[in-house]
Design a protein that fits this description.
This protein has helices at residues 2-30, 252-255, 265-278, 284-296, and strands at 31-32, 41-42, 46-47, 54-58, 63-65, 69-70, 77-81, 86-90, 93-94, 101-104, 113-116, 125-131, 137-146, 154-156, 161-165, 170-176, 183-187, 190-191, 201-208, 211-218, 227-233, 239-246. By secondary structure, it is of the alpha+beta class. Strands 4-13-12-7-8-9 form a six-stranded mixed beta sheet, with no helix packed on it. β1 (31-32) and β2 form a beta hairpin. The chain starts with a helix and ends with a helix.
Length: 297
């Protein structure tokens, strides 16, 4: 009897092991495990929600709704206007006669941004970024187009272009004319990661009677830190600044001047000798006087 019970226990254990292996293999077809991060990511399209879903734009300026889709595969990315259920774009094709609408997408990029040129108040409303999975997935954005005077907006403090030497500290600041609930900083199209391996990144936010001020600092500037930095407050118009990290001297463009270059003394002397050889004898004394006055300057 004990021998039979032992055999049954072995059969049950074998069945459990086979079932576990089957389910594990099934899960592996659904989930992928990136080696670099160790995180579990769905092997199907999903939204990488890195941008604000509440976007404010100013009348007659460009409004951009940023949609990032990971693991797109061969799926179609579409933008739909919610109020009339009108499909505006599909992949990079536009399906509206309003030429102000287009899609910003670079080859091999995960970004499918809806661009609205010369935004008008009538453009305000809800827009959906959609992926034709089964079932369909979508992400909604609320666009508010307002007049310039009434706009809640960020402003970069200082120059719109910043030049710093490699190894120094990049210091950026922006002021928002409202009490923004949150402010994000983007380097090009990626949100600045304060916990990245780079280190040396800090953010200071201060609320005043006039609004909110945000200061971003990056120590030990490297060439890879060059690019466009955007101060993106929630519910307000963003502002951008371009940073150039220089490996040595200032670029030639910064050294140019609108004034004409002054000729050197040597050049003036050579020209004087040529003039003396060509001029009649009665002009020689006058030419020497002119040369003396130029060299004195």
């Amino acid at each position: 009897m004990s021998q039979i019970n032992s055999s049954e226990r072995h059969n049950v254990a074998y069945f459990i092991i086979i079932s576990c292996l089957y389910h594990f293999q099934h899960l592996c077809t659904i989930w992928s495990l990136p080696v670099s991060s160790g995180a579990i990511v769905l092997d199907r399209p999903y939204f990488d929600d890195v941008s604000s879903r509440n976007v404010t734009a100013v009348v007659d300026e460009t409004a951009i709704l940023k949609c990032r889709v990971r693991n797109r595969g061969n799926r179609t990315i579409s933008w739909m206007r919610k109020r009339d259920l009108h499909i505006l774009t599909s992949n990079t094709f536009t399906y509206t006669s309003d030429q102000r609408f287009s899609v910003e997408h670079l080859a091999n990029s995960d970004d499918w941004n809806l661009r609205i040129e010369y935004a008008q108040r009538r453009d305000s409303g809800i827009y959906e970024c959609q992926v034709n999975t089964e079932p369909k997935i979508n992400m909604a954005f609320h666009l508010d187009v307002t007049d310039l005077m009434a706009a809640a907006r960020a402003k970069i403090l200082g120059s719109a272009e910043v030049h710093v030497k490699k190894g120094s500290t990049i210091s950026l600041a922006c002021a928002v004319n409202v009490h923004a609930p949150s402010i994000a900083w983007l380097h090009d199209s990626a949100v600045v990661d304060f916990d990245s391996a780079r280190g040396g990144i800090s953010l200071e936010t201060e609320k005043t009677d006039a609004g909110t001020t945000s200061r971003l600092m990056l120590t030990r500037a490297a060439l890879r830190d060059s690019g466009n930095y955007t101060c993106q407050p929630a519910g307000a118009v963003s502002a951008s600044v371009v940073v150039h990290v220089l490996n040595g001297e200032h670029p030639a463009a910064m050294q140019t001047s609108s004034a004409m270059p002054c000729p050197s003394t040597t050049t003036l002397c050579v020209l004087g000798v040529l003039l003396l050889s060509l001029a009649p004898p009665y002009h020689t004394n006058a030419i020497w006087v002119q040369m003396a006055s130029f060299t004195a300057q």
